[in-house]
């Protein structure tokens, strides 16, 4: 029976990673819209991969469990790529927290129960998590360790506290990295590893929409004033994921890899730093 790679959110980044880590394995692509998963499955199948498609709502435990059941019926779950989520321009603060924060914790919990020895997971977080101001030790611990079903009840995540979509997104992505650190301890008991990648602006259809939308000027400024001076590509994210999920990355777990062309460096210490109030 072949090993299975599960890709949740098979957009440009999810597919780029799948191409790098799925040769000789079965691939299960899952998206909240089955037509998206099927379109991605056709693309990969035409490139020689053995692929199936499924729908999943990562904010629903029942839906994630059904995906786990389908994956385990195909073989041993050897790899999980979690690239699903919503951006600040797509949803309300509470929806972002439910999908990006709670949904990620749910995926890590449920797939962590079945991942096979030697397996690994990569969660796609964001540079945004690195631009959030410092959290208290108690808040960081809560994001990492609170039981999944109680996560959205944390007082500092309440609707009257988190009122801005970008703030919700930053909290979610910081929470993803913290959650992965905690889950790495649990996954190790099964002989498996889990890490996050925090990409900057990666050219995908969604990024192109953002660049031409109301936040476009800010994004273009971010790219121009970054040390790299350009946006990234899905294949570059795929290269980092292949390291983390392969044998060359066997000593790496519970880690977060920021790959943003230096945007965060420029935000904290360069030309992108917020101007002090006059």
Structural class: alpha/beta
SSE ordering: EHEHEHEHEHHEHHHEH
Mean pLDDT: 95
Q: Give the count of helical stretches.
A: 10
Counted beta strands: 7
Radius of gyration: 18 Å
Helix content: 40-55%
Span between N and C termini?
A: 65 Å
Low-confidence region ranges: none
Major sheet details: 7 strands, parallel
What is the beta-strand fraction? 5-15%
Overall body shape: globular
Strand order of the largest sheet: 3-2-1-4-5-6-7
Molecular structure report:
The chain is α/β, with parallel strands linked by helices and 278 residues long. The chain is built from ten helices and seven strands. Helix 4 (93-112) packs parallel to helix 6 and helix 5 crosses helix 6. The protein starts with a strand and ends in a 9-residue tail after the last helix.
Question: How are the elements arranged and paired?
Answer:
Elements: E1 3-8, H1 12-21, E2 26-31, H2 34-46, E3 50-55, H3 61-74, E4 76-82, H4 93-112, E5 120-124, H5 137-145, H6 165-188, E6 193-199, H7 205-211, H8 216-224, H9 234-245, E7 256-259, H10 263-269
Parallel strand pairs: 1-2, 1-4, 2-3, 4-5, 5-6, 6-7
């Amino acid at each position: 029976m072949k090993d299975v790679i599960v890709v949740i959110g098979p957009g440009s980044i999810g597919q780029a990673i799948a191409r790098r880590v799925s040769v000789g394995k079965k691939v299960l692509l899952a998206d909240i819209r089955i037509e998206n998963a099927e379109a991605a499955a056709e693309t990969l199948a035409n490139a020689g991969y053995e692929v199936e498609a499924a729908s999943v709502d990562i904010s629903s435990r029942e839906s994630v469990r059904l995906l786990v059941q389908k994956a385990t019926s195909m073989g041993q779950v050897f790899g999980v790529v979690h690239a699903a989520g919503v951006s600040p321009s797509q949803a309300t603060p509470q929806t972002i927290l439910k999908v990006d924060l709670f949904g990620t914790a749910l995926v890590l919990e449920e797939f962590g129960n079945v991942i096979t020895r030697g397996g690994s997971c990569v969660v796609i977080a964001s540079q945004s998590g690195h631009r959030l101001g410092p959290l208290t030790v108690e808040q960081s611990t809560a994001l990492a360790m609170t039981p999944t079903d109680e996560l959205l009840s944390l007082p500092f995540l309440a609707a009257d506290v988190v009122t801005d979509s970008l703030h919700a997104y930053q909290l979610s992505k910081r929470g993803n990295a913290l959650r992965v650190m905690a889950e790495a301890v649990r996954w190790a008991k099964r002989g498996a590893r889990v890490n996050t990648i925090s990409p900057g602006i990666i050219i995908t259809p969604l990024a192109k929409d953002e660049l031409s939308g109301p936040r476009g000027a800010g994004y273009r400024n971010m790219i121009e004033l970054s040390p790299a001076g350009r946006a990234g590509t899905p294949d570059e994210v795929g290269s980092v994921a292949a390291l983390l999920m392969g044998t060359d990355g066997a000593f790496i777990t519970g880690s977060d890899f920021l790959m943003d062309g230096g945007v965060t460096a420029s935000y904290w210490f360069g030309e992108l730093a917020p101007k002090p109030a006059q």
